[in-house]
Amino acid sequence: MTQSVAPPVPPVAPEPTARSRRPSRGRPGWSVSVLLIALAVVGPVAAVLVDVANGELPDWPRNLGDMVVTTLLLMAGVGIGTLVLGCGLAWLVTACTFPLRNVMVWLLVLPLAMPAYILGFVFLSIFDAAGPVQQWLRSALGDFVEFSVATLPGCVIVMSLTLYPYVYLLARAAFAEQAPSTYDAARTLGAGRGRAFFRVLLPLARPSIAAGLALVMMEVLTDFATVQYFGVQTVSVGVYTVWKGSYDFGSAVQLAALVMLFAVAVLAGERLMRGRARFTQQGGHGRGLQPVRLSVGRGLLALLACLLALAGSFVVPVLQLVWWAVDHARGDGPPALDSGFAQAFSNSISIAVITSLTCVVLALVIGHAIRLGGGRWLRAAAQLTTFGYAVPGAVIGIGTLLLFDYLDRALEALGVPGGTGLLVTGSVVGILYAFVVRFVGPASQAVDASYQKVPVTLTQSALSLGAGPLRVLGRVHAPLVRSGVAVALVLVAIDAIKELPVVLMLRPFGFNTVSVWVYQLAKENLWGLAALPALVIVALAVVPVFILFRQVRTADTATRQRRSRGSL
Amino acid sequence: MSSTPALVFEGVSKSYGATQAARDLDLSVLPGEMVTLIGPSGCGKSTALRLIAGLERPDAGRILVAGEEVAGPRRFVNPEKRRVGLVFQDHALFPHLTVTRNVQFGLHGLPRAERAARAAEVLELVRLGHLAGRYPHELSGGEQQRVALARALAPRPAVVLLDEPFSSLDENLRAQVRAEVVGVLRETGTTAIFVTHDQTEALSIGDRVVVMQGGRIEQADTPYRVFEQPATRFVASFMGDADFLRAHVHKALLTCEIGVVSTVPGWASADVDVDVVLRPHEVAITPEPGRNGDGPEVVDMEYHGAFVLHTVRLASGQTVRSWQPHSVRHPVGTPVRVSVVAGVTPTLLVGDHAVTAPPGTAS
């Protein structure tokens, strides 16, 4: 080693002291609250993981291989279906103008309001062997026409029709928000419209499309009601049947862990699709993708494509439901809205109100705690609270039961015989807990979106004027984020009414909600009775779609205004 | 008790990860004093403000407000418990409350009648009594700023912090609002700390100017001394234009490339190299039309209206700038003689620091 010639560089800054690393701001009480919420949200998943790690290898169900393959096939099928429908329609409404395009842009989101378990039974009633389509075919072609549509492909069609809007929304936003200069650059480099789309816009939209697909996959994994109509044995169905059939905790937990594995794979896949490339684009002005006016014939074809998607996923099933409801009301069968339904309805409303209020309060606590400052771990905890939405319903269900099991054993150890006794019978408390775990994420997002619009200086001013954190929340933050609070209340309440799998898994015997009510009647082919309650659910579910649509439109307007300013 | 400083910093340090935003700050502000904090962006002036307000916790050192320790090794008072008022660039008025309600917000805890009386009083102070029932969005930018000031003053804070309070106002409104705000603060004898990045603003409104760079206080002094006797090379160049020429002091005579600059009393026995700080208004130029050979010549002339800025390249290649009245315009290429305006005692630097006594002597 030769002696270095250069003089030693004087240290630029003194070594940071150990003290400098402690969190500099934040309020312990509020931060701890967020940590507790995060723990509650992570609880069910953690319980499943801990239990699997400690448990012995159970006897896997004999048809495990089939279940895994079926799950994979279903995910692949629905993935391809939603990709084609979602991207294709998004491209159509972004790149072309045709009659009624501006109406179609948002009507195409409507199928989000159609729960798969409702579309599923309508689909079966129309297309299955006893349905009108096959009857007509038989009368036209002969009696040999008789086949079942309660199959994997049938299920793929139904789920693709109800879930494509996730891909559609994100793909459309990605196409619309492309920095115009990127597209212009591709065009000036000699790429035609089609080439510029496939080589530039589509690859740039990849992360958005992947995010949409991930949402679709999560819904597929969560569902174990729709698939049962179609006799499709996924792993999620396995969890449900093993638990409800034999109350075999060990096997159910193992299967739930397997579902979790699928979910993790989906999230990892999404990350992988995003890759190392950067997709955020620097502003840039230009004309960007200008929609092409289609000729009359092609325009009508485009319109027809949109109408078909809409008809298949929303209009026809709604009409069919209305027809059944009217038909049933005219007949002399039992009334569709009897006392049993009234009970289910009031149960749904109570659960929805309690869940949405709880979620909004928790969301306010999280938003407020972050606003009051705090270290990296507070942000990590806040991030964790949103993660329940990405956990499949079967996992949350079994995880919640496991937590009750721990609680029971703890109580028994303390000398309370039988503990809470909630485990086998299920309980409304369990449903509420699982709902909060699942929906505190969306509530947080809505409230957080409003918090973003409140300048930090407002909080700082309020504090420096002598208002403590609670008073700042009550007098300044809460009034200013009320629009986000309202959106969160509505979104969560309606999601809670729609939600089916978690309720099926956790409900006490005889406890019904509207969704369970519809599901059970439909399972017994009592379509006339199921129709009206199903319509109630669809009507309620349209509300958040409108809220979503309003947000999309506001964002669109903002983009347009940015562009028109830029072109001046 | 009026001799208790309104604000004291004792060795206050704060870092964000590897960035040191405040290094060992020491400062004492007297009651009623108006101090401006200035420096380039990232110099730590906003961090200093946040430390006083309690929005950040110092890593080391103590902060005292009106004699009470609000931050120290074992003590931290939350912002709402400090007697510190805040005025922001974006005014930060509560949009859902009227002007009166905004002003009354900090008077929580007083009886209703007293609250109303105090709110009316401070609104009168900023001459906005007639707008008490309005909502913030119904006010002009200048009016919003005055409401923000009234709101900050209402609870009678020990010190008011103003974070670039005028930079959101347009140019022609700014001077007027600034005069009004400073007037109100003087009238009420309020201790105020302004953060600004505008040199003219800092010099014109502060009783004292604190120049910061890299998390350190470079100089805390009267505006006059900060400008005329900068403590460091950075202060000299940041607070106004300055050129630096290599110079030499020998037997109390300061000489550099342009000749003898001045005498330096007390440096009779010195024989040292220094840098001399020349501000453009201290540099005189005289044309030398018939000069032969190389010498200083005008390389750039910028017309600024009332004054004309001449840039002169010396024989060594170094440039100095000189302000001339608007009627004096020497075209580029004019050979000139450069001197220092009579009566000027320029600042001398050894290294990056100003010196008043010859290096090596005890002063």
UniProtKB/TrEMBL annotation, chain A:
Q: Is the keyword Nucleus in the record? A: no
Q: What is this protein called?
A: Iron ABC transporter permease
tRNA processing among keywords:
no
PROSITE patterns noted in UniProt: ABC_TM1
* Record GO biological process: transmembrane transport
Q: Which InterPro entries match?
A: MetI-like, MetI-like_sf
Q: Which organism is it from?
A: Nocardioides guangzhouensis
Tell me its family: Belongs to the binding-protein-dependent transport system permease family.
TrEMBL record, chain B:
Its keywords, alphabetically, are:
ATP-binding, Cell membrane, Ion transport, Iron, Iron transport, Membrane, Nucleotide-binding, Transport
What InterPro entries does its record include?
A: AAA+_ATPase, ABC_SmlMolc_Importer, ABC_transporter-like_ATP-bd, ABC_transporter-like_CS, ABC_transpr_FbpC, Mo/tungstate-bd_C_term_dom, P-loop_NTPase, Transp-assoc_OB_typ2
Citing just one GO molecular function, the answer is:
ABC-type ferric iron transporter activity
A Pfam match is TOBE_2
List the SUPFAM superfamilies. MOP-like, P-loop containing nucleoside triphosphate hydrolases
* UniProt cross-references to SMART domains, sorted A to Z: AAA
Q: What is this protein called?
A: ABC-type quaternary amine transporter
Q: What is the species of this protein?
A: Nocardioides guangzhouensis
